[in-house]
Amino acid sequence: MTERALTRRALIAGAGTAALAAPAVASLSGMIDLGLPGGPSLRPTTPDFPGKSGMIVQRIRPPLLEAPMAVFREGTITPNAQHFVRWNWAMPTEVKAGAHRVAVGGAVGKPVSLTLDQIAAAGEQLSIVAVNQCAGNGRGLSQPRVTGTQWGNGAMACAKWTGVRLRDVLALAGDIAPQARRVRFAGLDVPLTDGAPQFIKSVPMDIALRDDVLVAWAMNDEPLSILHGFPLRIVVPGWFSTYWVKMLSTIEVLTGEDESHYMAETYRFPTAPVAPGDKDFPTVPITAMPPRSFITSHADGDTVALGEPVTLEGFAFGGDCGVERVDLVGKGWEIPCELGPQEHGPYAFRRWRLTLPQVAGDLAEIGVRAANTKGAVQPDALVWNPSGYARNVIERITLRAS
Ligand SMILES: Nc1nc2c(c(=O)[nH]1)N[C@H]1C(S)=C(S)[C@@H](COP(=O)(O)O)O[C@H]1N2
Ligand SMILES: [Mo]
């Protein structure tokens, strides 16, 4: 529940029209090195996207903005100004809340077209803190390299999402047909090239009806910005954000499999290990996130004082459940880390820390390894796949003692 006295009306009606000024390519402000193996690794940063600051520009239009890793040093909630942005196609740069409708149709008793007020009144309002992570997060670090947006690890963020349950919105459209299999979402964005597929995604019925899958209008107590999908987006805690459709305009109950492009052709993961060049192997859609963890107190190549204690800090997330444990691992050794409180529930970032009593020499290739409460553990070696999806290999750094 929201602590602040933000009513659903204030959130939606108060937002009125959201618009996005075009960013100026001219005023790129600095460069950041993403450390991508073999390069090119430098990316510009810009202050020029509205509501954003210090973001790494992967692409201007449609926008792809990445958070510098330093953002994650602070807290377990990522500020909206540093929340990564990803659009497959161009999104409208202005959306009028009063005119917006969400069509709910397909295999339902009574197809409806809902206003924002009707959606906000569909059921209990609730807030859930959850990690929003692109399925391609960290893809640029793949070795061998793969095609697609060359993200470092900054295509992730943790935020508090506020809205109503998807199942309460579905209920406004009458009875769901007994043969219903999936629920598909579309937004207002349209392909830039003729004949290209629209970005639509679907989840199985049991996921759609979950207690915590939202039609959300707020992110960290602010109305969703245009970049994050004003006025409404889907939130599926624990699942990669490819399913978190923004600028939601259509909800469709399907009775069969979903053969649309972004379900049947892409965002899929091999069912067994593959090597570069392999073809025609079976795949399944990318769905739930595996656990990940990061060191934020130090970066690769940092110096630590020889003979002194050193405190390492960072954060972890369990993926589709909570974090069970985090270990610092070196070459042939491991030490359990102290976990911070699970302050925001199982789907959020969680802090860890560890003090080593005395630095005896270089800390070569150290990393942290998270295990989640369902028993999934981060692997030692990259599970390579041709699209670089679902990276969760232990990320290693070396600290020099002197
Ligand atoms: N309408 C729409 N929703 C979308 C997308 C899109 O292209 N269009 N991209 C998805 C993908 S792949 C990601 S990673 C997340 C990014 O969410 P964010 O920009 O709020 O961080 O939005 C998802 N929802
Ligand atoms: Mo994504």
UniProtKB/TrEMBL annotation:
Keywords: Metal-binding, Molybdenum, Oxidoreductase. Residues 286-399 form the Moybdenum cofactor oxidoreductase dimerisation domain. Signal peptide: none annotated. The keyword Lipoprotein does not apply. One of its GO terms (biological process) is sulfur compound metabolic process. It comes from the Bacteria. Pfam families: Mo-co_dimer, Oxidored_molyb. Residues 91-262 form the Oxidoreductase molybdopterin-binding domain. InterPro entries: Ig_E-set, MoCF_OxRdtse_dimer, Mopterin_OxRdtase_euk, OxRdtase_Mopterin-bd_dom, OxRdtase_Mopterin-bd_sf. Its cofactor is Mo-molybdopterin. Gene3D superfamilies: 2.60.40.650, Oxidoreductase, molybdopterin-binding domain. GO terms for molecular function: heme binding; molybdenum ion binding; molybdopterin cofactor binding; sulfite oxidase activity. This is Oxidase. It comes from Erythrobacter neustonensis.
